[in-house]
């Protein structure tokens, strides 16, 4: 199987991890304030005490599986862009691998936070709350709480695709919108709204870039 096809499947996998993440977020985790600045830390630890496996699965999908698929996608996109814009392609590869590393690290820390809180909660609930809150802050710093690295990468891929005419208008347009949303998460007052724009835009962009790689389409 050629790299472009594998990369396209990786892009669709990234989209699927986002869809899974949103589905769990807006149903099971919404009452706890996940994805907002008003997260109920004690409620989260109480949830972990009885549902640790679910949170570990969620973290593993949205972070770890996503990061592994993202690495393959980054390499495939680099290959796609390198013929027309080799310099831009090199930049996108570097930025993409940095983002994948941050996402992978955030996932590992998120799972350690859940496991540690689950072990500690039955005997010292307050300490479990403090521990989870501290590790969660590190997780957010790596990328769970902002989308700057992802926004820069998707934006650069889209610019490279536009300059080299190696990606279609739909993919480029979605990428520029998504990239802008990611950068706007840097502004605290816009964080939640910008994060939603980035997340929903990324789903559409991952699908578009995945199909473009699989079918070698320059018009999508």
From TrEMBL:
<keyword id="KW-0472">Membrane</keyword>
<feature type="transmembrane region" description="Helical">
    <location>
        <begin position="148"/>
        <end position="164"/>
    </location>
</feature>
<feature type="transmembrane region" description="Helical">
    <location>
        <begin position="171"/>
        <end position="190"/>
    </location>
</feature>
<feature type="transmembrane region" description="Helical">
    <location>
        <begin position="12"/>
        <end position="34"/>
    </location>
</feature>
<feature type="transmembrane region" description="Helical">
    <location>
        <begin position="196"/>
        <end position="215"/>
    </location>
</feature>
<protein>
    <recommendedName>
        <fullName>DUF4386 family protein</fullName>
    </recommendedName>
</protein>
<feature type="transmembrane region" description="Helical">
    <location>
        <begin position="90"/>
        <end position="114"/>
    </location>
</feature>
<feature type="transmembrane region" description="Helical">
    <location>
        <begin position="54"/>
        <end position="78"/>
    </location>
</feature>
<keyword id="KW-0812">Transmembrane</keyword>
<keyword id="KW-1133">Transmembrane helix</keyword>
């Amino acid at each position: 199987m050629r790299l472009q096809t594998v990369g396209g499947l990786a892009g669709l996998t990234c989209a699927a991890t986002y869809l899974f993440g949103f589905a769990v977020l807006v149903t099971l985790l919404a009452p706890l304030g996940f994805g907002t600045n008003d997260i109920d830390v004690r409620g989260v630890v109480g949830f972990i005490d009885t549902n640790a496996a679910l949170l570990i699965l969620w973290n593993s999908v949205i972070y770890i599986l996503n990061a592994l698929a993202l690495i393959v996608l980054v390499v495939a996109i680099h290959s796609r862009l390198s013929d027309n814009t080799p310099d831009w392609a090199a930049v996108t590869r570097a930025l993409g691998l940095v983002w994948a590393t941050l996402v992978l690290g955030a996932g590992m820390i998120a799972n350690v936070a859940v496991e540690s809180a689950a072990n500690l909660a039955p005997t010292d609930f307050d300490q479990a709350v403090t521990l989870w809150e501290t590790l969660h802050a590190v997780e957010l710093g790596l990328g769970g709480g902002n989308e700057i690295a992802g926004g820069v990468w998707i934006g650069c891929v889209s610019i490279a695709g536009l300059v080299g005419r190696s990606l279609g208008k739909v993919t480029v347009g979605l990428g520029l919108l998504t990239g802008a949303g990611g950068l706007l998460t840097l502004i605290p007052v816009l964080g939640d709204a910008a994060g939603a724009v980035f997340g929903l835009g990324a789903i559409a962009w991952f699908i578009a870039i995945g199909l473009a790689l699989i079918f070698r389409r320059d018009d999508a």
